[in-house]
Amino acid sequence: MAREAPITAETAERRYIRHAMRAPMLAADHEHDLAVRWKEHQDEEALHELTSAYMRLVISMASRFKAYGLPHGDLIQEGSVGLMQAAARFEPDRAVRFSTYAGWWVRAAMQDYVLRNWSIVRTGTTAAGKSLFFNLRRLRARLGDLDGRLNPEARQKIAVELGVDVEDVEAMAARLAAGDRSLNAPVAAGADDAYQDFLADEADDPETVVTAKLDGAARQSAVARALKVLNPRELAIVKARRLSEEQRTLESLGEEMGVSKERVRQVEHGALAKLRKALESEYGGAGLAGLVG
Asked: Which fold has domain 206-292?
């Protein structure tokens, strides 16, 4: 007895598409009835019939995105998610067919999938970038400018038609023209240097880090010693006004201490002057003005 050939992913996808395309079309009245049953009664059989009838819409739209080089089956799956989202949000009483409403969700789901997977670098994160990503090639083909850099006239026409800046058109054209490149790849054939060897490290060097840490500790210690010259009221005001994450207002401190807010301001001003004098006496004042100013 001959063994059956194993079912491949490609074979399974073809069978699924054939099955989906055999689903009967829905009359407007029956479609509305199914949508109402799902919306008001969470009838899963109605949901299944409704979405199954429009899987042909998902399959058709997935074919439009095949040019981006992503698996057709994955596009169909993403479109199916969009179809389910449309069913969850569809309002049956509005004068619109479900297919019209679902088309937007299916297309949006596929576009998001393409943007997430076309490149390891996220592309089209803004509305302008998304519009350019999916329309630039079409518009360039219409203008007969598919090779090389866009000329100024073509850039301007595309920017006007899509309602974006000319700079955005230039940036997207350059991005689409350049493929992903590994930083580990050599800069030239036979070269020992890789692209990552020429990346500048923008972090502080160890000497700067250690120096900043030591300076910060010294300043903190100096401020702690300087605070000892303040009396309890001055210390409480300075801590509330200058050393707390949530700065207290003059009015709230005045109400708490039983004095006017103007008196609180005067005490704070005097306390800061005392602190400045103490710090300048011990530390020379260098770099400390911002702490007490």
From this structure: Arc Repressor Mutant, subunit A (1.10.10)
